[in-house]
Amino acid sequence: MLKRKKTKYKHAIVGGKKYYLYRITWIDPCGDSGHAEADEVKKLLPAKMITQGYIFDKDKKLVWTFASYDTESAVFSDRNVLPRCLIQKMEKVDNRPD
């Protein structure tokens, strides 16, 4: 009897397709439309963000994610698209307990 190899990464199967869960570290540009003195200007920095979501698709420029999905049909919610130039790290989330 052939035994199926269990994947070590967390995933969801939606509409017959397997989507893997990732932890994505990315930089979010920040802005301020208020008045500021010269010494305050360089204190405004981008935020380092963490997104956990399933990778829907990716190409050379963009990564599309979702966090929620319908169990009965291929419907996705909590969606994001991230420019690759802002992504610092993408890590697959594994099934092993911490």
Describe the structure.
The structure is a single chain. This protein has one domain. The protein has one helix and eight strands, in the order ββαββββββ. The two termini are 32 Å apart.
Question: Percent range for helical residues?
Answer: under 10%
Poorly predicted ranges: none
Shape: elongated
Structural class: mainly beta
Defining traits:
98 residues; two-stranded antiparallel sheet; 8 strands; elongated; mainly beta; 1 helix; six-stranded antiparallel sheet
Topology:
Elements: E1 11-14, E2 17-28, H1 38-41, E3 47-58, E4 62-66, E5 68-69, E6 76-77, E7 80-83, E8 87-92
Antiparallel strand pairs: 1-2, 2-3, 2-8, 3-4, 4-7, 5-6
Briefly say what this structure is.
This protein has 1 helix and 8 strands; from the N terminus they run ββαββββββ.
